[in-house]
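The data layer described in this paper is built around a simple, fixed record for each protein. Because each token names a local backbone shape, the row as a whole describes the fold. We quote a single record here, exactly as it is kept in our systems:

***
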Amino acid sequence: MSSFFFVRRVAVRRALVPVVRRRTTKSWIPQNESELQNCAMTALKHAFTAMNLSTAETLIPWFLNMMPASYFRSVSHEDRLQHLRAISALRSLESRDDELRVVTAASEDERVVTFATTGNRPGLLLRQVQQLSREAGRLAQVQVFTSRDDTLCLNVYHFDQSRRRKSQTEDMPSRKAHEAFAVEGGVDDIADYLDRCTPAYLDKVSSERLLRQKELYERAKDTGEHVRVDVEKAHVGTDDIGAHTGVYWIQLAAPNVRPRGFLRRILKVLAAADVSVERAHLDEIGGPDESAVAMMRLLVTPSTKWDDDNGNVGHNTWDDATHLLQRLKFLDDATLDVALAFAAKKSRPPTISELTTAEVVSALARVAHARLASADALAYSQEAILDVVAYHPRYRSIATKAANDLVSGNGKVDVEGLTLKVKAATAGVDAGARRILDAFVRAAAAVRDSNLDRELRCSLALSFDPKAVLDIGGEHHKPKQQHGAVPYSIVFVHSRRVGGFHVRFRKIARGGMRLVTPPSREKMAYEAARHFDECYNLAFAQQLKNKDIAEGGSKGVLLVDSLSDKWTDDDEESSGETLKHFACRQAVKAYTDGILDLVLAGAAPPPGDTAGGHDDQHHRTGIHHAMNVVVDAVAPNKELGGDMIFLGPDEQILPEDIEWVVENAARRKHATPDAFMSSKPASGINHREFGVTSEGVVVFVEAALRSSGKDPHRDPFTVKITGGPDGDVAGNLIRFLIRDFPDTARIVGVADGSGCAEDARGLDHGELLRLVDEDRPIIAYALPCGCLADASDEDGASKRDSMHARVEADVFVPGGGRPHTLNSQNVDAYLTPDGRASAPIIVEGANLFLTPEARTRLFEEAGVKIVKDSSANKAGVICSSYEILAAHILDRSDFEQLKPVIVAEVVQNLRHLASLEAKLLFREFARYPGLELPAYSTRISKAINDVKDAVVDHFSRLAAGRVDVRDEEAARVDPEPFDLFRDLAPDHLPPTLAKYAVERPDRFPTGYVEASVASFVASQLVYSEGLAFVETLPRDRVAQIALDFVDAKRQTQDVLNALHDVTDLDDKRKAAIEKLLKRGGARAQLDL
């Protein structure tokens, strides 16, 4: 302060006293202004150089002695000079908390960011990685160096904007040295690994370290998606450690992660456990056409609170840390936060038990939310529920106790005791918290199976008692449509960024899985609130739809959090679509692997998993053993029966997902991995490629038009469609309408996510086919039309959203769209001002597009004929069932060779089965037109399913010796299921599949054969004899009558064959007899 005022006083005095400039007499003193400036600059340079020289005299020796040898091996001379400048500037600041950031460009595509920081402390690296969240490019390499005296931390981050994997390394000296070292050590398969390495990695890593990382890399690749971790104590005096003693190397191999985000999570965990990172290295190993494995190596100093009585870090603590790092990739943010909260203030990682409890708490919180939020989404939001069960000081112990009961191994939750605690803790205080805790405890008590015993798992999978789940929250929280229908099984799978329900209605079941990716937080909350109800209703719709096949109905709905606001410090990509794609692919992997954990109970554990393979019961933690083991999925044998789950693709599932699921099932030793998921691109029948669902839809469109007096081959008709040309159902429907009705079909409106195109004269067929062929959305329509609206602007979005209700047509086909798009709140928009329907026929190509209330109102107020989804789009599920059957009897190579023939036969069968139901549906409706058409669809499905269930139950009781055989004749009419299968398959399956099925029945599990026979018998009975006959059969005799009917049909056919050989009847009489026999010959033989 004094010097400041001194300067001011001098300035004032000089301002008051005139200054007389005298010309100097010294000739060597500069006389003009320019010379004076040059002189001053030279003097300043000299002083600055002297100062830098003085600094260099101390800094450079320190730099050379204190920076680890690995720094000089891997950092170029030019970068070292940059670093020295930064260190020199940093030292002049004389503050422990100072930090400088240096940005350089190593090449046109590579950007390098270096942080020079005084000292090292827990959380430093995490803070820096978070600061780099907006840095462009993929984080390709990280190098962290701490000086030996701990006064400097130098962290170098390399960003590769080109996302290149590697350049050619064949001629690199370092590669040749590594190869020679490996060969000398007896490692012969080194070349393949080196091909996957980057030049920078090969240059910096020692040969010994490279071989150890190669082993870790291969362990990670062998286990698919799982992270592998090794921990070793660093040796004093080696590894550039210097005098440090409590220092450890952590090595990780993480397949298919986003390096920056995964590193951030690791650092978050280490910082929370009070661990300092002294050094770190990150590299990616992988070829250009495969997902890379992130290789990370961290030198860390744990907190002294990790130490045991001898001053060493205990093995249990490192076991906890290793387990957490292995599971980190798949832990949801909520789970991780709960786990870290358990270990807060302890300066150590959460224990294995604490981590597992946190997983269970966060998963059960999601289940409780799904059951409560339908009543009040705000009061029972996910955040509100988690606050109560995980963080509230009064309530969290109750939830933790319930979760611990599951984790501890006894699998029995003390519901009575916990309910008393809930009442006591919330009495007169918080009714909402009481409801939440009650739902949480009920959800915990409902768990009957889990994959908690798997050391390596991609998710937490919990299987519930379905009735108990439906009872959570009381009557008001039950699914709105089907109060009385209790599923066979309810599963919830929880992993990072995804929670998924799987609901099935039969022991053997198949159904698609769909991804739901809401575009905003508000939409996310909305979808989360109806998550379970949507899955339940879709599974029930699938159960109705699966009437013609062996498998019952199921559905998987995965709610994926792909919103970019969760990735701000977690990933380097700026594209929301890229983030969404990654999140969706990981969600499919986590979900399906969790389902496999339950399906393969009792099978060999996943590769590298030692925890799940023990036979001794005390080795099996959790409650995994509580459910019946799924034997058939592991080792199919016709003497055994068991649960079978088959998956198929639905919304946002890609071919790459299908291929991964099948490959993973094979890796997990599923007996028939090709059957586990259908619609495989090569060894299956891809629905989109062959349009199998739309083949059935177009049959129902024709039948509906004919029932309204139009012959679509002769009379012009108009159609409007939701779902774009690039969609499965909508795109193929466009193709088939133009194929089957080129001169009469006019498509007057198409809407999809991109917008809509409308034209009352009909959109151009050629242009629509171009969009279908090129897999383009409707906004790419390039010809003039009545209206082309882009959904990216508000007006276009409004037109897109209203097209299905606003545009007038003869037929509306929902070929895409969210469930309940047309509901009781907006159904009036579908009616014109004079009360007519904008389209008097609706054929539901998409599931649940209309609510039951909307269907009823449209029928009652405007007479709309609605072909329900369970009828209209059933061809897709039948095709998937054929694919499952083919996977049992044909090797992959055989199927691919026969595929063209099989596909043609399958399509013919699909259209035949659609036609059978369409004829029955409109025949029944014509008899009693006062009942809405969807009611007939439901009755048809129920009739067939009831007969199927009765026949399956009959086989089960027969095998158990519980059938009441009253006489020898009754006993003879019960042929063995495999014999029936051989007899019936040719009449019900596509010819080629029937041929191999009859030749190789021993390849099927018994339960599958029994269900197949039941489906053959039931569909034949109902389609032939109609609803009134089947619905009035005595319930206790349904199975026997159905089996007798099959025998009667065979005998009737024998009579018909004999009739052709009769010579003393004219053709007219023969035809009349033949007609009578076909209509009632089989029924007449039944003992009713």
About this structure: The radius of gyration is 36 Å. The CA atoms of residues 74 and 204 lie 5 Å apart. The chain is about 50% helix and 15% strand. The chain has a mean pLDDT of 84.
